[in-house]
């Protein structure tokens, strides 16, 4: 950062495990920049440089390294103080550890992705079930129609009353089974959203 202005590292140091009094010697721009996560550094530099050149304050989130080696998520707010010539001479502000919030956000995002994946899986299984039911119903209905037709012919042509009754039972049973198959096919079409509704009075 091309400025003599020091960042408000005093508010950052306790969050990173440093003592602002005992470790005051390290309070400088190089120390601050050196602890920011490499992936976040370009964004932080862009925000701060823009603020130093055009603004009076800035807000930025970034990860910075704790004294113990792990990264802490920080919400950094700075107010730029300028001299009479408009040159930035000091930055005052505050820093807040938002690691817990970021972890919660990541968990919620993961749970959302998991829920979406489960929903997509359930929808795919419903489609497969509907397709299976539709195919099964069609494969059964085709030969059943033929059986029903021949049962009707036998009922009309057989003279023996007992045999004609048997043929009539076959015909009646086929009609019942065909009705069940049609209901299964209708259900499959509804679940696959392929059913067409015809409004009527």
Q: Can you walk through the features of this model?
A:
A hairpin with a 5-residue loop joins β2 and β3. The N and C termini lie far apart (76 Å). Helices cover 57% and strands 15% of the residues. The chain is of the alpha+beta class and 201 residues long. It has a three-stranded antiparallel beta sheet with strand order 1-2-3, with helices on both faces. Residues 1-5 have low confidence and may be disordered.
How would the blueprint of this fold be written?
Blueprint: H1 9-12, H2 29-35, H3 41-54, E1 57-65, E2 71-82, E3 88-97, H4 99-157, H5 161-191
Antiparallel strand pairs: 1-2, 2-3
Helix pairs in contact: 4-5
Annotation, overall tally of beta strands? 3
Mean pLDDT: 80
Number of helices: 5
Distance between the termini: 76 Å
In terms of DSSP E residues, the strand content is: 15-25%
The helix content, as a percent range, equals: 55-70%
Overall morphology? rod-shaped
N to C succession of SSEs: HHHEEEHH
Structural class: alpha+beta
> Which blocks of ≥5 consecutive residues have pLDDT under 50?
1-5
Global Rg: 38 Å
Q: Give the strand order, joined by hyphens, for the main sheet.
A: 1-2-3
Report the sheet with the most strands, covering strand number, pairing sense and barrel closure. 3 strands, antiparallel
């Amino acid at each position: 950062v091309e400025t003599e202005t020091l960042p408000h590292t005093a508010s950052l140091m306790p969050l990173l495990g440093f003592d602002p009094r005992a470790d005051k010697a390290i309070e400088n721009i190089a120390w601050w920049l050196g602890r920011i996560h490499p992936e976040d550094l370009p964004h932080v530099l862009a925000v701060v440089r823009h603020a130093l050149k055009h603004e009076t304050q800035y807000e930025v989130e970034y990860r910075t390294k704790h004294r113990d080696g792990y990264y802490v998520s920080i919400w950094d707010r700075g107010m730029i103080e300028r001299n009479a010539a408009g040159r930035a001479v000091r930055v005052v502000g505050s820093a807040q550890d938002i690691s817990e919030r970021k972890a919660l956000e990541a968990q919620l995002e993961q749970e959302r992705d998991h829920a979406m994946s489960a929903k997509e899986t359930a929808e795919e299984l419903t489609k497969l079930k509907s397709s299976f039911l539709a195919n099964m119903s069609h494969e059964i209905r085709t030969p059943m129609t033929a059986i029903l037709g021949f049962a009707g012919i036998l009922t009309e042509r057989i003279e023996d009353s007992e045999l004609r009754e048997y043929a009539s039972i076959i015909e009646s049973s086929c009609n019942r089974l065909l009705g069940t198959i049609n209901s299964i096919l209708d259900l499959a079409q509804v679940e696959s959203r392929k059913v067409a509704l015809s409004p009527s009075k």
